[in-house]
Amino acid sequence: MCETQGRLDGKVAIVTGGSSGIGFEAAKNLAYRGARVIIASRNSTKLVKARNKIQSVTGNKNIEHRVLDLGSLKSVRNFTDFTIKTEERLDVLVNNAGALGLSDRLTEDGLNLTMQVNYFGTFLLTYLLLPLLKASAPSRIINSVAVAMYIGHLDFDHWNDVGRYTTVQVMANSKLAMDLFSAELSRRFKDSGVTANTFDPYITKDTDILNNMEGLSKNISQLFVDIVGQPKEDVGKQIVMLAADPDMANITGKHYKFCREWINHWLAYEEDFTQQLWDASKQVVNITADEDWDI
Predict the structure, then answer these.
(1) Where in this chain does the entry annotate a coiled-coil region (predicted)?
(2) Which end of the chain is more exposed for a tag (fewer CB within 10 A), N or C?
(3) What distances in angstroms separate CA 27 from CA 14, 51, 149, 185, 236, one per listed residue?
């Protein structure tokens, strides 16, 4: 159900978390379809290996790798500055990177680490790349969420608190923020040719998502993943369906799972709340006057 004949020749795609797991599979599949693919993650060694493997397997030599640490707003700004200066277009942005089980602490930017890695860094990345996406329209933004978003809660006065939320709660909050950000994106860019949709990878085998967990909880979680998880190759196909299928060209503001439209969080339809999220997020990541195309 995830198969598509869509091609991306002459198109440019960015995949965060593209050096391994789901992101790697998505990047490889995009490369098969002729896209120029930029894979981004924190580890330059893994990026080089992933780039070389994608080039070798697909025969597509137009694969780039760039370091991006979503836990650093400076790194995000450096990445977007370089991309805007060197890329003439951007047709697909796959916001796949995320983490579970990170330490309960603040980053150098004064933000909750999980919230920044899973949401604030991606918000800033997307916000700064939106002018290029709009200039390249039709273009697509694909955001990774999780089923945990349904139990998420967003309190803008406390979403960066340390010691307030459990590991699962803060992850749920970050994924809910991603989902509502996508809903607001779809409304703001409805008539611009830029689409924004979310996907839930469900439970996926052979990824690094459990690397930050320890002890018995990690072992139990790994056993569960091994039993019920779906292959990462299948999830990569789901992302590529959203990125390349011609039938998705004008679809925006939807949530997908197993390549089917799925029930979205009810807050995605509360425009006042998603607008509030947008404004609060801009403030948290300190959008400057020069960056603020939204004024």
Answers:
(1) none
(2) C
(3) 8, 9, 25, 23, 8
Rounded to whole angstroms, the Cα distance separating 225 from 236 reads 17
Residues 18-75: tens digit of each pLDDT? 999 999 999 999 999 999 999 999 999 999 999 999 999 999 999 999 999 999 999 9
The predicted model scores a pTM of 0.92
Backbone φ and ψ of 243, nearest 5°:
-85, -30
Q: Are 2 and 29 in contact (CB under 8 A)?
A: no
User: From its phi and psi, is residue 259 left (phi > 0), alpha (psi between -120 and 50) or beta?
Assistant: left
Q: Strands of 178-227 (E only): list them.
A: 194-200
Respond yes or no on whether the N-terminal peptide bond of residue 138 is cis (omega within 30° of 0). Answer: yes
Percent of the chain with pLDDT over 90: 84
Cα–Cα distance list, 117 to 68, 99, 124, 161, 228 (Å):
11, 7, 11, 15, 26
Fold of 12-204+232-283: Rossmann fold (3.40.50)
- Which conformational region is residue 262 in: left (phi greater than 0), alpha (psi within -120 to 50 degrees), or beta? beta
pLDDT band at 214 (very low <50, low <70, confident <90, very high): low
Residue extents of the structural domains in the chain: 12-204+232-283
The pLDDT tens digits of the residues spanning 269-291 come to: 999 999 999 999 999 999 999 99
Residue pair 193/173 in contact (Cβ under 8 Å)? The answer is: no
- What CA–CA distance (Å, rounded) separates 135 from 220? 47
CA-nearest of 188, 74, 73 to 130 is 188
